[in-house]
Amino acid sequence: MLSLLILHGPNLNLLGQREPGIYGSATLDSITQQLEQAARSLQVKLSSLQSNHEGALVDAVHAALGQHQGILINAGAYTHTSIALRDAIAAVAIPTVEVHLSNLYRRESFRHHSYIAPVAIGQISGFGADSYRLGLEALVHYLKHVEG
Ligand code: DQA
Questions:
Q1: Is 115 a catalytic residue?
Q2: Please, where are the H alpha helices in 9-129?
Q3: pLDDT for the residue numbered 59
Q4: Where are the domains of the chain?
Q5: Which is the closest atom of ligand 1 to the Cα of 74?
Q6: What is the helix, strand, coil percentage profile of the chain, to 5?
Q7: Ligand 1, atom 1: nearest CA belongs to which residue?
Q8: pLDDT band at 35, cuts 50/70/90?
Q9: CA of 8 to the centre of ligand 1 (A)
Q10: Helix or strand or coil: residue 60?
Q11: Of all atoms in ligand 1, which is nearest to the CA of residue 77?
Q12: SS3 state of residue 81
């Protein structure tokens, strides 16, 4: 069975209470539950990690090597700043889908650039909590039917 790593970056632990007008009212726990439900019907296994620390996310990407066949990541603000995270994803070469709750391109210009996008299969941005489910479906489809 395919095993996938779900990574959440900084401040996403505050989902539900954090700027709900932008990020919605779903908590990280409820997003994880939705993903677990989707994973059951897709017949894949998930491991999730949220961290506010760039190095912990880099470590998690390294540790995915040999353990997980795909990565779904919302790197939060590190999307726009972290060459280290981008290099880690490039280094392990594990197929990665980038997701964002908000539509980055309708927001401040500093959010328009992603360091992750060039090393990701693709990006889903703007569908709220559904971005994660859509990203998971896209990743599983890629692993089963495009790469596999
Ligand atoms: C975000 C968008 C980022 O710009 C922001 O820093 C976040 C959340 C999103 O999911 O919309 O923390 O990744």
A1: no
A2: 20-23, 28-42, 54-63, 83-92
A3: 98
A4: 2-147
A5: 13
A6: 50, 20, 35
A7: 76
A8: very high
A9: 10
A10: helix
A11: 6
A12: coil
The reply to whether 100 belongs to the active site is: yes
Asked whether residue 51 carries a pLDDT value surpassing 80, the answer given is: yes
pLDDT in tens, 70-84: 999 999 999 999 999
Q: Is residue 11 over pLDDT 80?
A: yes
Whether domain 2-147 has CATH 3.40.50.9100: the reply is yes
- Please write the tens of the pLDDT for every residue from 98-127: 999 999 999 999 999 999 999 999 999 999
Return all residues near 40 (Cβ < 8 A) that are at least 6 apart.
none
Q: How far is the CA of 94 from the centre of ligand 1 (A)?
A: 22
Segment 121-124 long-range contacts (CB within 8 Å, at least 24 positions apart): 121/95, 121/96, 121/97, 122/97, 122/98, 123/97, 123/98, 123/99, 124/97, 124/98, 124/99, 124/100
Give the mean pLDDT of 21-50: 97
Percent of the chain with pLDDT over 70: 99
Question: Who lines ligand 1 at CB under 6 A?
Answer: 11, 74, 76-77, 79, 100-102, 104, 111
Res 147: pLDDT = 81
